[in-house]
């Protein structure tokens, strides 16, 4: 038994090294000089330099991070405002075509984002939404809303009918039962879906690359500008990637318990 436990511990340790080594390399590269980054053999002990971060913070990168924050927050607010009542309705209401509607919602999530790029670009061109933060918020709904609806539907399915019936007998309307009973009961699932939606919106690259030109560029797309035909600013890329990754890591760690439930609960039960 001890031998098996030791083997599991060694395996877990090796997996941690395997997955964390690229992250360690990225973070250390952001505080190394270019000579140290490409030194052979690798430099393991060094004096950190913060030049790459200073260059980014003095430039336009903080504005790109602000765009990411505004677009992600706006997208999550709209997604949860629409997705939560929609999921409750689909979980509790019984009407003709309900299964078809559920499958149609799921089908939109299965579409490759690049397949929608051209239609969305042409529509935004006509509507004047190119390079617009509101346009990005709206387009992010195309992949966040179906995910939230399906996950939250699974959580709302778990709400006991007796609780909702008791609320109705006490005089609550359907909306009152939803706000006072269903939402508090499924609050861990709602928080998990909020975290997932925020992560997907924060990391979105394809639509932002196509629809943003200057004012609405987010941090993920801005990182691509450090690649040049003649030179690649590896230190700036590493520093920018670290700064972009940090909010996601912190947010995920704070809500990791709810995030795990969101990934394992709310299964597709239809």
Keywords:
270 residues; mainly alpha; MetI-like fold; 2 domains; disordered C terminus
Q: Pick out the low-confidence regions.
A: 266-270
- Protein structure class: mainly alpha
Global mean pLDDT: 85
Strand content: under 5%
For the termini, the CA-CA separation is 42 Å
CATH superfamily of the largest domain: MetI-like
Number of domains: 2
Quaternary class: single chain
CATH class type of the largest domain: Mainly Alpha
- Under CATH, the topology of the largest domain is which? MetI-like fold
Q: Please outline the major beta sheet.
A: none
CATH architecture group name of the largest domain: Orthogonal Bundle
Q: How many β-strand runs?
A: 0
What Rg, in angstroms, do the CA atoms define?
Answer: 23 Å
Question: Which descriptor suits the 3D outline?
Answer: globular
Number of helices: 14
Structure description:
With 270 residues, the chain is mainly α. The protein has two domains: 1-49, no CATH class; 52-264, MetI-like (MetI-like fold). Helices cover 74% and strands 0% of the residues. Helix 4 (61-92) packs parallel to helix 7, helix 5 (98-110) crosses helix 7 and helix 8 runs antiparallel to helix 9. The radius of gyration is 23 Å and the shape is globular.
Q: Can you summarize this structure?
A:
By secondary structure, the chain is mostly helical. Helix content is 74%, strand content 0%. The chain has two domains: 1-49, no CATH class; 52-264, MetI-like fold (Orthogonal Bundle), CATH 1.10.3720.10.
């Amino acid at each position: 038994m001890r031998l098996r436990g030791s083997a599991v511990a060694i395996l877990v340790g090796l997996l941690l090294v395997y997955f964390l080594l690229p992250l360690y390399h990225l973070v250390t590269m952001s505080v190394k000089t270019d000579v140290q980054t490409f030194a052979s053999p690798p430099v393991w002990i060094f004096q950190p330099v913060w030049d790459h971060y200073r260059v980014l913070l003095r430039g336009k990168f903080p504005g790109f991070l602000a765009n990411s924050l505004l677009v992600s927050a706006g997208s999550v607010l709209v997604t949860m405002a629409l997705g939560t009542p929609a999921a409750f309705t689909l979980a509790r209401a019984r009407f003709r075509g309900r299964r078809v509607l559920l499958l149609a919602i799921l089908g939109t999530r299965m579409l490759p984002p690049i397949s929608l790029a051209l239609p969305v670009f042409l529509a935004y061109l006509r509507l004047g939404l190119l390079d617009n933060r509101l346009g990005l918020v709206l387009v992010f709904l195309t992949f966040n809303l179906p995910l939230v609806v399906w996950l939250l539907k699974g959580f709302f399915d778990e709400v006991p009918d007796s609780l909702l019936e008791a609320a109705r007998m006490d005089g609550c309307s359907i909306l009152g039962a939803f706000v006072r009973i269903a939402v508090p009961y499924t609050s861990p699932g709602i928080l998990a879906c909020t975290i997932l939606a925020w992560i997907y919106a924060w990391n979105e690259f394809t639509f932002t690359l196509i629809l943003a030109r200057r004012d609405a560029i987010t941090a993920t797309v801005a990182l691509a500008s450090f690649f040049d035909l003649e030179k690649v600013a590896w230190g700036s890329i590493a520093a920018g990637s670290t700064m972009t990754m940090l909010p996601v890591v912190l947010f995920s760690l704070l809500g990791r318990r709810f995030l795990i439930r969101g990934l394992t609960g709310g299964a597709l039960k239809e």
